[in-house]
Structures are given as C-alpha cells and as structure tokens.
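# nightly structure sweep
# worker-07 picked up a monomer target from the shared queue
# config: single-sequence mode, recycle default, output format = structure tokens
# input follows
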Amino acid sequence: MVEGGIAKADKTEFTECWRTTWKTPYIMRLAFSAGIGGLLFGYDTGVISGALLFIKEDFDEVDKKTWLQSTIVSMAVAGAIVGAAVGGWINDRFGRRMSILIADVLFLIGAIVMAVCSAPWVIIVGRIFVGFGVGMASMTSPLYISEASPARIRGALVSTNGLLITGGQFFSYLINLAFVQTPGTWRWMLGVAGVPAIVQFVLMLSLPESPRWLYRKDRVAESRAILERIYPAEEVEAEMEALRESVEADEAIIGDSFGAKLKGAFANAVVRRGLAAGVTVQVAQQFVGINTVMYYSPSIVQFAGYASNSTAMALSLITSGLNAIGSIVSMMFVDRYGRRKLMIISMFGIISCLIILATVFSQAAIHAPKIDALESTTFSPNATCPAFAPLATPNAPPSGWNCMKCLRSECGFCASGVQPYAPGACVVLSDDMKATCHSKGRTYFKDGCPSKFGFLAIVFLGLYIVVLVNINRFQQT
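# output follows
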C-alpha cells in the first residue's frame, strides 16, 4: 500500500528496486526529483564549514567574535525548526509537491542573499531562509518518495534520500575546495546551492502530487491515474483498496482526542519501550557532537595543526567522504547483523574515538612549540605580541609560554623556518603579519599550533564519523 511512515530496506529490496525502476523509469524519476531535497539538505548543512574560513577573512568582526561565527552557523538550524513545523501544515493543506516547490524557492532566496551580501547580518538572514528550506525538505522529500513509490521497494527508495543527504555534504566539501582560489570564494560556495534548487523546482513542476494526499482530498481519479503509472495494471485495484483502508484508519485515529491518543500509545508496553529507545538515540546522537563536526570540520582540522585553508578543506573532504561511505556500509549490514547489536558496537566506538580525540588535542596543546623570545622581539618592527612583550627576557620566554598560550592571548604564531615543531615567534594577529611570515617562507598559525599529533586527530575524526553515521542509519530504520 502507499501510506507513509517509516520504511526500511534489505539487500533483496535493493535488488528488487533496481529491477523495478529499470522496467518503470518513471518511479526513479519521482524518487530522484524529490531526493534532490535531501541533496540540498546535506549541501547547505555542510557548505558553511568551509565557507566560514573565508568569511572570517573578509569580515574582521566575524574573525574576532566567536558568537558571530556561531550565529551564522546556527541560524540554519533555527530556521529548520520553524521550517519543519510550518512544513507539516503546508504538507497537509497544500500537498507534498507544493511543499517541495516552496522549499526550493526558500533555498534559492537564501543562496542569492548570501552570495551578494555585504555584511555578516545579511549572511545570517540568508542562513535563516536556507534553514526554512532545510526544515521543509527534511520531512517532505522522504514523505513524497514513500507515498509515490511501490510498497515492495519503498524502503530502498526512501533510503536513497538519506544517502543523498550525506552525498550533498560530500559535494559541498568538493565545491568548497574547488573555489578556494577563485575570487569571491565563499560567495560562490554558498551561492551554488541555488543550482540544484532550480533543477528540482523545474523537475517537480512536471511531476504529480502524492497519490495518498490526492486520495485524502477525494481526488480519487487523479490518485488512480498516478498509481497506474507506478504499478502493473493487475496490481492497481489492490493498491487502491489498500490506500482506502489506510486513509480510513488514519481518519479514525484523527477523530480521537490528543489525550486519548497519548493514553493509547503509553498503554502499550512495546510502544513505550520503542518510544523511549528512539528518543534516547535521537538525543544521544545530537549530544555526541556530529553537528559540530559537520559544521566546523575544517576549523577542527586547523586546530589539529594544519593552518592552510586549502589543506584544512582537503582533509575535511576525507571525513565527509567517510560520512557518505559509512551510510552505504550501514545500509548493507543493518539487516544482516541487526540494529541493536551494531548500535551497541557503534556507541562503544564513539566513546572510544571521543576519548582518544580529547587526549590527542590535550597532548597537542601541552607539547605545542615553544616561543623563541629573541625572534618574537626582533621579528619585525612593532611585531611582538602585546601580551608577550612586557614579559619577554633576552634569553628565554616567560614560563609556560608556548604556541597555544600565544594564540590564547589573541596573537599569532609564526612557525620556525627550519623545523615546524621548533620554537617560533609570538607576533601580533593581523593580515599584514601573516603576509610577512609567509614572505619569510614560514607558516602563520592563528587557530591551531603545529603538532606531531595532528594526523591522529584526522584518523580518529574519520573513525568517529563512520561509527556515528551507523547510529544515524539505525535510528532511522
């Protein structure tokens, strides 16, 4: 039948999906067109991580105020909350197709606003519009796919939406890397999101509404016409009957009061345990930091000791790729080995990776390169870090001063030109000083310090992504 709801897939269903869509390309056209919403969701949540590095270079206030950076990132999430809430009403009132079209318009407006903005607050406005689109797309795209696909392959087609989300995140890192050397950098990164929104808008104009929504609106003939394009002729009547029974059951439930529904749900022990498990996993998934990694991955890489924006985004591309690969792996193994067993293993993996990452970053800070007092005071005129200058002695730096202490004093660190982990200069934080440091063939650090432990952070960050993606897949199914 074609009712909505949670759909899961196994290996057999994916095989059947390939066979069915090969015979009936129209089904894949429906699923792919709606699935672009998942791609947009992934792109707009991932692209800001790289764009933020260059936004900080263009706007000094963003570079100096971490709360402003957090606001730019988080406004998309705030917008998504509103978009999801309003999207539910739009879905029921105007249909799934109209909801997707509105989300595309919001994506496009947000992309244009951010691409042409002249101040940080304008970027925030654009992020809010994008968030509205994300909220609507996150609930509407899988719903449309579920209601417009045959029951026997519904799980496989809905699963592709989740794959497109991680694919969109990976694509955003590729785009970020592609525009590193292009004038306008972050404007192109954020503006490109308008392209798939336009593509989906055009595709959805030629596609029908969800047959289930049409049936609920008493547009039975239109609903049947769509099912005739999806199912073989001999199966259409059975699907119409299944659809009728499903809609009637839903209407009967809708007639109950909220209190009666809640009481009925909690009276069932299986429902109670399932609800408790689902809510716990959802909350735990957010608290273990996946959004922090996806929104700030290049910044985290820089904290690990890779100062270059290009290098940070290239290494972040690895973690994003592992995110997409992890989705595919989890889809392959979730039905073979069971959700509970693999989720428990994944939780232990997450805990282990986070403990190791905390240890790595702690050791990196402790063993950060020392400060060369002579270089810091003679590097160039008026170059010495203001916090360091009064404490400096001719022969040695003040006790406890190293690269990390220098950065925490809102200064920059110009690494040694002989050996990257040798003592370097603690200098003022400015673009001019960065250029001076680079002119001497050295690396300028302002977000992280040179570290022998940096590669370990990348390795375990990648492992963390893989095991966390598995949990995300399990809770969805």
